[in-house]
């Protein structure tokens, strides 16, 4: 959250002339940002409680509301309400956050976030990474099937290559934008199955290697 002071709250150097408190209240907790006299104005971080389901990544959406008020605290401990104005500035956070602001009082406002969701590019990138996971799993299964049906020779180097595809699948999962939590719908419906297919492909290639090696030894001994 970026903060700016107007109306004689700072001196010519941009330092506060009084102590200022900003209070942010959401459905779960209350946060107080204290700006001390003599300090410069700087951006502050706040955390908000929003309702949503992250398991539906990357199509997860969140909504919520919070109130913010401002007051000036004098040296004797008395407080005076400060007029508050709110605005928005585009930030590359990967989230699209539509919201409405309603003034409760001159020093207090209510912000309602209707439906915060991921930016379109992040959703498209997550879909592309998902397709890459499917492609890697499909390649593994096809190669394992060709080996077990003796349509392709199975070798230790090929088994190592299939292991490399398994590592590539885990790295692809880690590169998903927004770092989705373990156990989300993406893992249950896709990633766990991709790993299962990769493991099955390695097992098929190993069984085929043992069979083909045994057949080759038997042919050499004849």
List the helices and strands and how they pair.
Layout: E1 19-26, E2 30-35, E3 51-52, E4 61-73, E5 79-81, E6 95-96, E7 99-105, E8 108-118, H1 120-148, H2 156-174, H3 185-221
Antiparallel strand pairs: 1-2, 1-4, 3-4, 4-5, 4-8, 6-8, 7-8
Helix pairs in contact: 1-2, 1-3, 2-3
How would you describe the overall organization of this protein?
Strands 1, 2, 3, 4, 5, 6, 7 and 8 form an eight-stranded antiparallel β-sheet that branches. The chain has 222 residues and is of the alpha+beta class. It is rod-shaped, with a radius of gyration of 29 Å. It has two domains: 19-118, no CATH class; 121-221. The chain has helices at residues 120-148, 156-174, 185-221, and strands at residues 19-26, 30-35, 51-52, 61-73, 79-81, 95-96, 99-105, 108-118. Strand 4 (61-73) and strand 5 (79-81) form a beta hairpin.
Largest sheet: 8 strands, antiparallel
Sequence of secondary-structure elements: EEEEEEEEHHH
**How helical, in percent, are the residues?**
25-40%
Radius of gyration: 29 Å
Shape: rod-shaped
Mean pLDDT: 87
Total strand segments: 8
**Would you tell me the structural class of the helices and strands?**
alpha+beta
Compute the number of structural domains: 2
Strand content: 15-25%
First-to-last CA distance = 80 Å
Number of helices: 3
Poorly predicted runs of 5 or more residues: none
């Amino acid at each position: 959250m970026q903060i700016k002071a107007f109306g004689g709250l700072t001196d010519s150097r941009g330092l506060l002339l009084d102590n200022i408190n900003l209070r942010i209240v959401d459905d779960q907790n209350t946060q107080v940002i204290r700006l001390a006299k003599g300090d410069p104005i700087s951006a502050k971080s706040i955390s908000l409680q929003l309702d949503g389901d992250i398991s539906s990544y990357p199509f997860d959406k969140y909504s919520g509301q919070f109130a913010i008020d401002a007051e000036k605290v004098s040296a004797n401990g008395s407080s005076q309400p400060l007029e508050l104005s709110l605005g928005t500035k585009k930030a590359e956070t990967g989230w699209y956050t539509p919201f409405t602001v309603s003034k409760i009082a001159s020093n207090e406002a209510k912000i309602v976030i209707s439906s915060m969701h991921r930016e379109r590019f992040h959703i498209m990138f997550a879909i592309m990474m998902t397709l890459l996971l499917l492609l890697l799993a499909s390649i593994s299964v096809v190669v394992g099937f060709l080996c077990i049906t003796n349509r392709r020779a199975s070798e230790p180097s090929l088994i190592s290559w299939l292991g490399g595809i398994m590592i590539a699948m885990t790295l692809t999962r880690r590169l998903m934008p927004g770092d989705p939590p373990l156990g989300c719908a993406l893992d249950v419906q896709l990633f766990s199955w991709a790993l299962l297919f990769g493991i099955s492909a390695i097992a098929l290639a190993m069984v085929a290697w043992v069979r083909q090696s045994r057949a080759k030894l038997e042919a050499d001994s004849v």
